[in-house]
Structure formats: C-alpha cells, structure tokens
Design goal:
Strand content: 5-15%
Number of strands: 12
Strand order of the largest sheet: 1-2-6-5-4-3-7-8-9
Largest sheet: 9 strands, mixed
Helix content: 40-55%
Distance between the termini: 51 Å
Radius of gyration: 24 Å
Order of helices and strands: HHHHHHEEEHEHEHEHEHEHEHHHEHHEE
C-alpha cells in the first residue's frame, strides 16, 4: 500500500483526529507522512492541537496498528478510500469538513450522483412508512439513487423499498462497517451491498455513538443533490440533515403530515422555514436541474411506464373505499364490522389486492393503501 495512504489511515485511527484537525495538519505539513514524521513540538504549533495530542500523534506510527485495520478491511471486502484518491466520492470534496477517508462496502457508481437523500423519524406512523415507500419506489422507477442512514423507521423503509423496486441505494452509517446497527438490519445491509453501498468515515470497529450521527448526516446530504424529510419531530436528527443540506447550498423538501401527529412538527417547521412541500417524487425531480433533465430524458424515451389500471370487483372496491378514508390503515376486524363480507371472502380479497400491489399489510395485520 502507498505510504501516504497508510499514513492517512493511521491519523484517522486516532479518535481525536476528526476532519477539521486532519485538514489543519495537512495544511501545515503538506502530507500525512510528514505529519507522522514531525516532532511533538512542531505538531503543537498547529491550530487546535494541544501538547497531549501532539505527543500522541508523534508516537502514532509506532503505536497505532494500522496494518490490522487494513487487513480486516480486506478480509471483509471493504475498500478504504482516502480523500487524495481518485475513487473518493467527488461530491464529498465540496464539504468544508470532508472526511479524510471513507470506508465503502459495495460500489458507488457514477450514476449515483443522480441521488436524493431521504430521512425521517425512527418511529414512523403508518402514513410515514407508506410515504417513504412510495417516494423510494418512484425514485427507483426513475433510476434515481436513494441515500439514507440505515436507522430504524423511515431510513429502513427507504432502503428496503428501493431494493424491492430494483433501484440503487446508499446507506451512510454512524458506526464502523464491522459493527451492525441496528442489528435487525444485518440482512438489509447485505442486500444494499448488492444494489449500492454501505459507507462510513469511522474506523471498522467504532460502535454507534450519539456524537457520530451528525457527522453521518452531513455525508448523507453531501452525497445527495437534495434532501427529502418524510416524518420528523421538531428535535429529530432528520432536521440536522436538512440543515446541512441548506448549508451545502442544496434544496430541502418535506412531506406534510397530519397536524395532530408530533412527527409532523419537524416537517411542518421545515415547510414554514422555506422547504418545498411535496406530495410525490416527480415534484422533487422537476425542482432540481440535473434531475429535471434526467426525468425529461427518461420520459421522452418512454422508459417510464405507468402501471395499468387494475380492475376491481365489487368487494375489492369496497375494501379500497375504506382505505381511501383511513390513511393510517385499518385492521381486519374493522373491515368485518363495516363491510357485509364473510371472513373467508374478505381474507381472499385482501390477499389478492396485496398480490396486485394495491395494498399492503403491516405488523399487527393492519392494512394500508399502496399509493
């Protein structure tokens, strides 16, 4: 391995060396190799580098086990890319606090520059899940990459829905790629690697930590052409991603929600603050120049085809009439109480409608409309 690349990784493995300190050191000494070859007295002259840290950096090339990190990455099929390499994501170079390295499992392709970040609460309502599913599915239909943070809730829905629709998705993690958080998304990680990539700026064995997630969020917005917030409370981390997006000169979109839900407070705050209210993926694409051009090209070549209208029988129409008026979804008991349809026939109707993609069932046998 190139000695400069190894030196960069060595610096990153020091917990105290974040993006800003790394840049300060490189600006002063010109290279990571020169940083590691400098005396602690010289290092101590760098902005925000105190005596204790200076001494730690001076000892790093002898004390940090960089080879162990490199060997583990190779074993796990993870590529460590430094900010000085061609493979480094170009969009991240525009960040003032760009990460010194990114760990990538999977593949980031050139087409992924046509992307939208989608974020939201870890505790979505059925309405929020359905909205995230629909937006992700439609972006996949237009071959636009979705980017999110693999958290529970909206993030998980975005990645899963994109994959199920055959699209590409990138997941940016707030932990090292040798840690799996949340643990129930382990299989989802494997699917993402096949249709996109897992990305982190943190060393492989770093555990998820509260302070890591804002750093993760700036990468989500940094890789995306715009950020879409689906559901969020007023203190949600999704609003941090939206703020980074604004600071990076990018558009923010928000999906409106019920006024009685606390998970609408964040999105409504964004709308009041200037975010664009959107009800469908196409509105997002039409508002961003590179995506608008892409959309026009797709439509002009007839690659996008609307689903054919599916004829419903009388029982199917009755079921859908109820779902049209209950966006949060209803239980099978509710159907039985409000429809004059025997249980067996109702169950068969629900299964058929789900197979046709018109509705879907959620945990607890709650049924919602697939918009």
């Amino acid at each position: 391995m190139d000695i400069e690349k190894k030196a960069v990784i060595t610096l990153v493995l020091l917990p105290e060396i974040g993006p800003v300190r790394f840049q300060n050191l490189i600006n002063r000494f010109g290279s990571a190799v020169q940083v590691l070859n400098s005396s602690w007295e010289e290092l101590n002259l760098v902005e925000d580098i105190n005596e204790n840290l200076s001494k730690k950096i001076a000892r790093a090339k002898n004390e940090v086990d960089t080879d162990k990190e490199i060997e583990l990455a190779a074993k796990l099929g993870i590529n460590i890319v430094t900010c000085f390499e061609y493979e480094y994501p170009k969009a991240l170079r525009n960040l003032y606090n760009y990460p010194a390295v990114v760990y990538i499992k999977g593949e980031i392709k050139d087409i992924d520059i046509l992307s939208v970040g989608i974020v939201g609460t870890r505790h979505p309502t059925n309405y929020g899940r359905n909205a995230a599913l629909q937006f992700a599915k439609d972006f996949a239909k237009y071959e636009v990459t979705t980017i999110s943070g693999l958290a529970r809730g909206i993030d998980t829905e975005v990645h899963s829905s994109t994959i199920n629709a055959g699209g590409r998705t990138l997941a940016v993690l707030g932990n090292g790629l040798n840690r799996h958080y949340p643990p129930e998304n382990r299989k989802l990680e494997e699917k993402i690697v096949k249709q996109g990539a897992l990305i982190s700026e943190f060393p492989l064995d770093i555990e998820p930590d509260r302070q890591n997630f804002p750093r993760r969020n700036r990468i989500i917005s940094g890789l995306s052409l715009a950020t879409l917030v689906v559901e969020a409370d007023i203190k949600s981390g999704a609003l941090i991603t939206a703020r980074y997006s604004v600071e990076q000169g990018k558009d923010v979109f928000a999906v409106p929600g019920p006024i009685f839900s606390k998970y609408s407070r964040g999105t409504h705050h964004l709308i009041k603050s200037g975010a664009q209210l959107v009800e469908g993926a196409k509105e997002v694409l039409e508002s961003i120049e590179p995506l608008a051009v892409w959309l026009k090209e797709k439509e002009s070549t007839s690659i996008i085809r609307e689903k054919e209208d599916i004829e419903l029988d009388q029982k199917g129409r009755k079921v859908m009439d109820i779902l049209d008026n209950n966006i949060e979804g209803v239980s099978i008991d509710y159907f039985l109480e409000n429809l004059d349809i025997p249980f067996g026939e109702l169950s068969s109707t629900l299964v058929n409608l789900e197979l046709k993609g018109i509705l879907r069932s959620l945990p607890g046998k709650i049924y919602v409309k697939n918009h």
